[in-house]
Amino acid sequence: MHYEISVLKRAMGALALTVALLGAGMTDGILAQKGGKPEKQVGKTEHKMEGTALKTHQREERVTLKTHQRAERQAFKQSWRSRHRNFNHGAHKRCVKECNRAHKNAQRACSGRTGADRRACERAANEAHRTCIAGCPR
């Protein structure tokens, strides 16, 4: 009887030791297969690293985009300035003033007429004014 009890104690000890070893070592593997806690911690760390890499990548893209936009804006300003410098503002203004003066004189000439004749005269004066303005230097 004493022999049977000692065998049972040894078996219980071995069983407890196996359970303890399995609990410490094998549980990580089992939990890893099921998606348990240890794998989750590694996943979070990887996720954080991926998030940091993603943020860095997005920041680099933003900087690249801003640099590109700045270059485009500068090119547009340069092209606008060159176009504006070529624009002879004084000549255009003088031409428009002359056209307006001629148009006013033509309208005065039409004011003595009546009816359909006056309307035709004003139409012709307006058309002449439109073509005059369009012909001014830009």
Average pLDDT metric: 77
* End-to-end CA span: 120 Å
Fraction of residues in helix: over 70%
Please report which band the strand proportion falls in: under 5%, 5-15%, 15-25%, 25-35%, 35-45% or over 45%: under 5%
* Sheet having the most strands: none
Secondary-structure class: mainly alpha
Which word captures the global form?
Answer: rod-shaped
Describe the structure using short key phrases.
138 residues, mainly alpha, 4 helices, 91% helix, 0% strand
Protein topology:
Elements: H1 2-34, H2 37-86, H3 89-110, H4 115-134
What would a concise description of this structure say?
The protein has helices at residues 2-34, 37-86, 89-110, 115-134.
Q: Any overview of this molecule?
A:
The chain has 138 residues and is mainly α. It has a domain at 89-138. Helices cover 91% and strands 0% of the residues. It is rod-shaped.
